[in-house]
Amino acid sequence: MAVDHGTGSITRIWTIVLTAILVPAAFAMPWLPQWIMPFVTTAVAKGLVVLGLMVIWRAGLVSFGQALYYAIGGYTVGLLGVYAGMTDIFLAVLLAGLAGGLVAAVTGVLLARYREIFFAMLSLAFSMILYGVLVKSEALGSTDGIPLKRPTLLGQTLEPSTRLLVVYVMTMVTALASGLFMRVYLRSKTGALLEPIRDNEIRVEYLGASVRATIYGMLVLAGILAGLGGALTALAVGHIDPTMAYWTMSGSFVFATVLAGTGSVLAPFLGALLFEIIRVVALQHFPEYWQLILGTALLLIILYLPGGIWSLFERKRAEAA
Questions:
Q1: CA–CA separation, 36 vs 23, rounded Å?
Q2: What pTM does this model have?
C-alpha cells in the first residue's frame, strides 16, 4: 500500500478538518459531559502507540509487545513523582518518551534481527518480562499499581478538573505533532524503504540500504511514540498498574491497527478511537459478551475491509478518479 501517495489530497483535507475540530474542542471540553475528556484523551494517547505500530506493519512486521514501551512511559511518569518528586507535566511526558525510546533502543538490537512470527513472539516476550517484574515488585506497586502524584504546571499544582484539560490539550498537540512528523518520515528516503523491505529485503540491500538499521530506527521511533502514549494515558487516568504491560494491551493495539489500516497517519487515531468506542459500548451494554463483540468486529474487518477503515477513503478516491 502506498504511503500517502494515493491519498495525498484526502489526507491534506482530513488534516485540515481534524485540526479545525480539535482546536475548538479543546476549549469546549469544560462545558461537555465530564466523561468525554478522559475518554477522548485516552483514545488519542493510545493512537500514538498505534501510529508506531502502523509504521512497523508497513515493513511487514507485527509487534505484540508495544505494551512494553507503553508501560515504560506510564511508569516513568509515576515513579518520577513518587521517588524523585518530579511532577512537572511537560518534563514527565518528555522523559517518558525518551525512556520508551531508550528501552526500544536496547530491545531493538535483538528484534531487528528477526522476522515474521519470531519477531512477534520475541516482542511479546519482552513485554511479559516487564509485566512479571511489575507484578512481583512491591516497590513498583505490585498488582495494585501506583497512584500518580498530583501533577504541576510551571510550579503550580493542578486541580483534577484543570489537570484533565491540560492533559487533553497536551495529548492533542502531541498527536498532531507526531502525525505531522510521521508524515514527513514516511515521505523521506528511510520511510520509503519500509514497504520495499516488506516485499524483498535482498533487493533493498542491493540498493545499498541497510535493512537492519532501517528497522532498528523504526523500532526506536515506535518506542518513543508508545512511551508518550503511556505517559499521557497515565496522566489522564491518574494511576498506573501492571496491566499496561500485559499481552492483552498489546493485542488491543494490534486490533486498532488492523481496524484502522495503514493508508494515512490519521488512520491510527481513528482506529484507536473506534476501538475504544466499541469496547466501552460492549462493556456497558453487554458485559458478559464484550469479548465476543470485539472478536466479531475484528472478523468483519478482516473479511470485508482487509485494508482497514481508511481503505474506504481510498476506494472513494479511486472511484472519483
A1: 15
A2: 0.89
| Amino acid symbol at 72 | I
**What are the phi and psi torsion angles at 153 (to 5°)?**
-135, 115
Q: How many CB atoms lie within 10 A of CB 94?
A: 15
Residue 26 within a domain: no
> What is the average pLDDT value for the chain, to the nearest integer?
87
Answer yes or no: is 124 within a domain: yes
| DSSP assignment letter at 8 | H
Which range marks the domain in which residue 149 is found?
8-19+35-320
Is residue 295 predicted with pLDDT exceeding 50?
A: yes
Extract the C-alpha cell encoding 30. Answer: 469544560
Rounded to an integer, what distance in angstroms lies between the CA atom of residue 166 and that of residue 157? 12
Element (H, E) at 152: strand 152-153
Distance CA 4, CA 12 (A): 10
DSSP conformation class of 146: E
Q: How far apart are CA 60 and CA 55, in angstroms?
A: 9
Express each pLDDT in 112-170 by its tens digit: 999 989 999 999 999 999 999 999 998 888 999 999 988 888 888 888 778 888 898 89
Residue type, 3: V
Q: How far apart are CA 292 and CA 302, in angstroms?
A: 15
Q: Which of 180-189, 283-292, 308-317 has the highest mean pLDDT?
A: 180-189
Q: Does the residue 25 lie in any domain? A: no
Please state the domain count of the chain. Answer: 1
Residue 2 located in a structural domain: no
The 3-state secondary structure of 56-104 reads HHHCCCCCCCCHHHHHHHHHHHHHHHHHCCCCEHHHHHHHHHHHHHHHH
**Which CATH number is 262's domain given?**
1.10.3470
